[in-house]
Design brief:
The complex is a heterodimer of chains A (about 220) and B (about 475). Chain A is about 40% helix and about 25% strand. Chain A is α/β, with parallel strands linked by helices and about 220 residues long. In chain A, the strands form four sheets. Chain A has a five-stranded parallel sheet with strand order 2-1-3-6-7, with helices on both faces. A four-stranded antiparallel sheet of chain A has the order 8-9-10-11, covered by helices on one side. Chain A has a two-stranded antiparallel ribbon with strand order 4-5. In chain A, helix 6 packs across helix 8. The radius of gyration of chain A is 20 Å and the shape is elongated. The relative contact order of chain A is 0.09. Chain B has three domains: about 150 residues, Beta-Lactamase (2-Layer Sandwich); about 100 residues; about 150 residues, 2-Layer Sandwich (Heat Shock Protein 90), CATH 3.30.565. Chain B is about 50% helix and about 20% strand. Chain B contains nine helices and 14 strands. In chain B, helix 2 runs antiparallel to helix 3 and helix 8 runs antiparallel to helix 9. Chain B is rod-shaped, with a radius of gyration of 51 Å. The chains are: A alpha/beta (about 220), B alpha+beta (about 475). The interface between A and B is large, with 41 and 49 residues.
Chain lengths: ~220, ~475
């Protein structure tokens, strides 16, 4: 995916760029509103991350102008202010979501996913593996046509497996993707969620297999 | 009286008292003038009649060489009788000698140079008597001799007229006073109306409305309006400076914390060393702790500042509660914590400052989320009580750990079961400060079946 990051603090911007690069995304960095307009003139982005206090103006003014020009690209505002009234005002201005600094990358990813899910709606292709299907637009999981209700973390764990069936994920990898980095979680916590997920998708042609000493994978039962 | 003329005395009372006193003086003057005028008119009429009777007597005096013959005609008395039932006295003098009548009737004190009669009042036989005296010259035995006729009449008829006239003059005075008083009150009302309408224009504004007053005003009130506008300007400036400062401070503190946190997270994802991972996680928790402390201290600064402003207004809680729950959901969903709101269909409206209430609710909910385990639910219940609106935040977290709720409220106090949870001990202090400032109540208790129950009640505002 391609992102535009509008943020004047170079150090902060670099950390976000590095992290998005690790996840395989291409990100352009605009240190000012002027530079953001330049990027927008020549490229298409999936999501824009926007800071509020910028050297050449207020991010909110940028946002209203951007929306007034009928651009539909989702915008997630990254701000230091946490008041709910600020958040409501931003959403009214045309922001799709709002994240308070400092933020967790897991949270940022979750918000990007949620924003894109809303944006793309039904146009997203269903993912399936054997009799297991997943609709990212509605976050519905079904086993042989039977819908199963998954809670947030179970769903995220499931998303990791269904995106790469037969791929083996280590406990450490799963912990990084599932939990906030500030959570004091032992790798064994993953076992709890694996057990729950196994229960939720049982009765079909698939199962989550434990590969001793290495990790887990989604495979045919 | 002292109070009436002091600077703090009511303008209405001052105006009314001075206008009433002026009206009363004018009414009294009117009464006296009318009485004097009537008195003078009656006296002039009386004098004319008295003068005419004197003339009639003089006309009947005949002079011959033998002397003077005086024949008092009946007409003279019938003229005087027309004025009323008064006693009449007369004296006719030839030269210095009284020839007929009362010898002791007083003579005029001054004699007019003209031919007209002299009129004067003098007491006679215990009565106030009005006299007319006229002198004519007759030729007796070859020389001119003065013959003087003095005619007096008691004044009971005049007194009767005055007695009759006085109540009418009093009525006239009272009537004048009443009309003047009504106009005085009207004038007072008109003057105060201008001041009251200015007061209204300022009072009707919402607490956020800091535009200058521009409505048309009488020139006398303009300096006052100018100083009000000056004050509003300074207030707006101070307000925006403080809010800009709080926003700027949040930005300055949080931006480097974000860089630090992100860098630590990157390092965490790049290492497989479990010891290093633990250290990095501890560092990230410390960063989160700092960020939370910073924002709660700014929250507390904002709450103290707004408490001083006292710009309270009606706040409908339904939407506020829903917005706050919505703001929390994306973060809590990551921990599988669900937030349920029970919002009544009718509006729950309280009197307060929306930013303060929001700050309190945010901290209550933040606390509930912090101490809730994964896979648990938080309930927010909004309800209307007798004279207050109540927000309950119920969680299934660790509860209060056997400590009374009020003991957890002071600054930087944390529960004994709070270890391992990021926190500063400021959240509950902020909520209770908001409750106190808005004359509400905040309590924290253990919830039946485990967890905590935070309750914020604020005085109702009836629409």
């Amino acid at each position: 995916m391609r992102f535009l990051l509008v943020e004047d603090n170079a150090d902060l911007a670099q950390t976000v760029l590095d992290r998005l690069k690790i996840d395989g995304h291409a990100t352009d960095w605009a240190p000012s509103l002027g530079s953001a307009w330049d990027y927008l003139a020549v490229a298409q982005y999936d999501v824009i991350f926007l800071d509020i206090m910028l050297p050449d103006g207020d991010g909110r003014d940028f946002l209203s102008t951007f929306r007034a020009q009928k651009h539909a690209t989702p915008v997630i505002v990254m701000t230091a202010r946490s008041a709910v009234s600020d958040r409501v005002a931003l959403l009214d201005t045309g922001a799709d979501d709002y994240i308070t600094k400092p933020f967790d990358f897991t949270e940022l990813e979750a918000r990007v996913r949620a924003v894109l899910r809303r944006q793309q709606g039904a146009s997203v292709n269903l993912r399936s593996f054997l009799d297991l299907t997943y609709d990212p637009a509605t976050a519905t999981v079904s086993v042989s046509g039977d819908n199963r209700e998954l809670r947030n973390r179970e769903l995220r764990l499931f998303e990791i497996f269904i995106a790469n069936p037969e791929h083996v994920f280590s406990k450490a990898q799963l912990v990084d993707r599932l939990f906030s980095s500030s959570d004091d979680i032992s790798e064994n916590a993953v076992e709890v969620y694996i057990a729950r997920l196994r229960k939720k998708i049982e009765g079909g042609q698939t199962r989550i297999e434990t590969i001793r000493g290495i990790g887990y994978r989604l495979t045919a039962s | 009286m002292k109070k009436l003329f002091s600077a703090s005395g009511s303008i209405r009372t001052k105006l009314l008292v001075s206008l009433m006193v002026t009206s009363a003086i004018l009414a009294a003057l009117l009464f006296l003038s009318v009485r004097t005028f009537v008195n003078q008119a009656v006296e002039a009429t009386h004098d004319n009649v008295l003068g005419a009777a004197t003339q009639v007597i003089l006309d009947e005096i005949r002079a011959s060489d033998d002397g003077v013959s005086v024949d008092i005609p009946y007409t003279a008395f019938s003229i005087l009788g027309s004025l009323g039932q008064d006693r009449v006295f007369y004296r006719v003098m030839v030269g210095e000698t009284t020839v007929t009548g009362y010898e002791d009737l007083p003579l005029p004190t001054t004699q007019s140079a003209t031919l007209a009669a002299d009129f004067y009042s003098a007491p006679y036989r215990n009565d106030a008597v009005r006299f007319a005296s006229d002198t004519r010259q007759f030729l007796i035995q070859g020389s001119m001799v003065d013959v003087t006729v003095i005619l007096g009449q008691t004044q009971s008829a005049k007194a009767a007229i005055m007695t009759q006239m006085t109540p009418r003059a009093v009525l006239l005075g009272i009537g004048f006073f009443t009309i003047a008083a009504v106009f005085g009150m009207l004038a007072t009302w008109l003057v105060l109306q201008a001041i009251a309408s200015l007061g209204d224009a300022v009072a009707r504004r919402g607490p956020q409305d800091l535009r200058p007053v521009t409505r048309p005003m009488p020139p006398e009130l303009r300096p006052f309006v100018r100083s009000i506008n000056g004050f509003i300007g300074r207030l707006a400036n101070a307000l925006s400076r403080t809010e800009t400062f709080i926003g700027e401070a949040a930005h300055r503190i949080r931006t480097p914390l974000t860089t630090l946190r992100n860098t630590l997270e990157l390092a965490l994802s790049e290492t497989d060393d479990p010891v290093l991972k633990d250290r990095l996680r501890a560092s990230i928790r410390a960063v989160d702790d700092s960020a939370r402390s910073a924002s709660q201290m700014l929250d507390q600064a904002a709450v103290s500042y707004r408490t001083d402003q006292r710009s309270y207004q009606p706040v409908v809680l339904n939407e506020l509660v829903t917005d706050i729950a919505d703001a929390f959901r994306p973060t809590t969903a990551l921990r599988d914590v669900r937030i349920f709101c029970v919002i009544p269909k009718y509006d729950v409206c309280v009197l307060g400052d929306p930013i303060m209430i929001e700050t309190a609710l945010r901290n209550m909910l933040d606390n509930a989320v912090k101490y809730s385990g994964a896979h648990s639910d938080i309930d927010i219940r909004l309800s209307q009580g007798e004279g207050f609106g109540q927000i309950l935040v119920l969680d299934r977290g660790v509860g209060l750990g056997g400590i009374a709720g009020y003991e957890l409220i002071p600054r930087f106090v944390r529960g004994n079961n709070a270890s391992g949870v990021v926190g500063t001990g400021l959240g509950l202090t902020i909520v209770s400060e908001v409750a106190r400032a808005l004359k509400g109540k905040f309590t924290l208790t253990d919830r039946d079946g485990g967890g905590a129950c935070a309750s914020l009640s604020l005085p109702s505002y009836s629409l």
